[in-house]
Amino acid sequence: MTGLFISFEGVDGVGKTTQVERLRAYLEAQGRTVVVTREPGGTALGRAIRQMLLHGVDGGAADIAPRTEALLFAADRAQHVAETIRPALERGEVVITDRYLDSSLAYQAGGRELTLREIKDLSLWATNNLLPARTYLLDMDPALSHSRLQHAEDRMESAGDDFQSRTRQAFLDLAAAEPTRFRVIDASQRIEQVWAAIEADVETLLKELA
């Protein structure tokens, strides 16, 4: 693979979408081909899975068992990698995804009842061990980030303060365990400050890859 794979992580409302679009514009201005995608829902199959996971089944809330939830996320990720991410990387393009494997580790292993190893093994199997070259964790107190949300809360967003706090800590623990891949950025700063930190790191990353 000759492309570059970047992911953005963090609890809801931290500004991932804004920074993804800034990074896309920055890279495209350098003449690079960029694919922006997301999880869940980065493919047609993924969008159907996303609807079930975040909004329930047949328009109503669904009591999804933890193992079922893990398998649905893994199925979405397997299709996402096979259909979108890996082909783009093989073409030498830059892939930026809003959420990837680490969201499953944080939300399902950190916030629910499955172990980190169970979720990680499942996701690595689903993706044939594909990990991003860089993961930007936009970190913020969930109480503050959720006040920024401008839409009705989905199933994950409405899981409660304790769940969100455990998830945030799980993200931070993941970053501490893989300091080479992760960059943790204080998302409570102004948008321009957050972007400046990302831009500086991307410049260094591109030089290293070159």
From TrEMBL:
EC numbers on record: 2.7.4.9
PROSITE patterns (alphabetical): THYMIDYLATE_KINASE
Keyword Cytoplasm: no
Catalytic reaction annotation: dTMP + ATP = dTDP + ADP
GO biological process: one example: dTTP biosynthetic process
Keywords: ATP-binding, Kinase, Nucleotide biosynthesis, Nucleotide-binding, Transferase
InterPro entries assigned: P-loop_NTPase, Thymidylate_kin-like_dom, Thymidylate_kin_CS, Thymidylate_kinase
GO MF annotation list: ATP binding; dTMP kinase activity
Residues reported to bind ATP: G10, V11, D12, G13, V14, G15, K16, T17
Record keyword ATP-binding present: yes
UniProt xrefs under NCBIfam families: DTMP_kinase
Record-stated family: Belongs to the thymidylate kinase family.
HAMAP family hit by this protein: Thymidylate_kinase
Name listed for the protein in its UniProt record: Thymidylate kinase
Upper classification of the organism: Bacteria, Bacillati, Actinomycetota, Actinomycetes, Bifidobacteriales
